[in-house]
Design a protein that fits this description.
Pfam families: Ank_2 (PF12796). InterPro entries: ANKS1/Caskin (IPR033635), Ankyrin_rpt (IPR002110), Ankyrin_rpt-contain_sf (IPR036770). This is ANK_REP_REGION domain-containing protein. The chain has 11 helices and 5 strands. It has a 5-stranded mixed beta sheet. Strand 1 and strand 2 form a beta hairpin. The chain is elongated, with a radius of gyration of 26 Å.
């Protein structure tokens, strides 16, 4: 019985120390290494108590790649966004190594229909993607497909400038005008982008036009 009691005490002590170490690690910073497919690595640190959303925001800020979506993997497996904290993700309480893939937000749309992708970028207010698609040769004055017009509840004959004005995206309006978009372009109903900006109630977009 004496040996059994000693074993139980030893196990209890080990469990207590393990829990104590976990609590300590959960309160401290973890060294974070993030690697891109290109092999580039950024090393920083983050609190073990950070949520997955905060971790993703931090990693995205390390590389500053606009208009991209971030995909994180840990040892080849996608990072579980439902985990409560970085501490729950890290196998090592002091270090976490992740792989990051940044995918251009409009990659799939541009592959299917470059014209619609440009209009979607304008509708969403992504000025960097507008420049990127125009650099790739997308037609500045292209009009939206019927399917896209239906999805965004807009009239037919919609150009990227109309879309940006309708959503009140002044930065996108400015980017399109800087690239030569016509403020006089009319949709199939005869409305110019300025009419759309007025409907949106966006003074900044209207002034740019």
């Amino acid at each position: 019985q004496g040996c059994l009691q000693q074993t139980r005490l030893a196990n209890a002590a080990a469990a207590f120390l393990s829990a104590a170490r976990f609590r300590t690690s959960a309160m401290s910073d973890i060294v974070l290494s993030v690697r891109l497919l290109s092999g580039a690595v950024r090393t920083t640190s983050c609190p073990a108590t950070w949520t997955m959303a905060k971790l993703r925001e931090h990693v995205a800020g390390l590389f500053d790649l606009p208009d991209t979506e971030l995909f994180l993997t840990n040892s080849g497996a996608p990072v579980d966004s439902t985990l409560e904290s970085v501490a729950a993700l890290a196998k090592d309480p002091e270090r976490l190594e992740l792989d990051a893939v940044f995918q251009w937000r409009f990659a799939e749309a541009a592959a299917l229909d470059p014209d619609d992708a440009l209009i979607q970028a304008a509708w969403s207010g992504h000025a960097a993607s507008i420049d990127r698609m125009l650099d790739l040769g997308t037609c500045l004055g292209a009009t939206a497909s019927l399917g896209l017009c239906e999805r965004i509840c807009a009239g037919t004959g919609l150009t990227a400038l109309h879309a940006a004005a309708l959503r009140g995206n002044a930065d996108a309006v400015t980017a399109l005008l800087a690239r030569g978009a016509s403020a006089e372009a009319r949709d199939d109903g005869g409305f110019a982008p300025l009419h759309y900006a007025a409907v949106a109630g966006c003074t900044a977009a209207a002034q740019a036009l």
